[in-house]
Amino acid sequence: MKxxxxxxxxxxxxxxxxxxxxxxxxxxxxxxxxxxxxxxxKYMFSLEQRKEFIRKTFEKFPNVxxxxxxxxxxxxxxxxxxxxxxxxxxxxxxxxxxxxxxQTNRALTRENxxxxxxxxxxxxxxxxxxxxxxxIISYGxxxxxxxxxxxxx
Length: 153
Prior knowledge:
Layout: E1 3-8, H1 15-24, E2 30-37, H2 47-57, E3 64-70, H3 73-79, E4 84-89, H4 92-108, E5 115-120, H5 130-138
């Protein structure tokens, strides 16, 4: 069974995230959208809100589920017996950052059994990031054009 973990904070989930998952659905038997908990980070939305946003957004996709974890993504993948990490790339800076993480993950798994799969975000969504959405929300701007319906609160 081909299972991928799509890790992130998803604070909030955006149309860019949606784009990556929607296009990855046919590639995997199951995709776990895994919300990482970072005690050092201040979130705009609670963990439960973020989980609910994701559940509602992907309710029509039976092979997509949501979970949360603490610690290293690679350890979470091992605990779930997952062989793929799914990541989206918006620009060259994302590639360089994600490449370093992928190479580190390979070094941490001596067996090299966990592969990182990169998908390029569709061009019309490559400018969207959760941090930009949070900034727009904090100033009362029109963030709704950048997020799935479930986030439009």
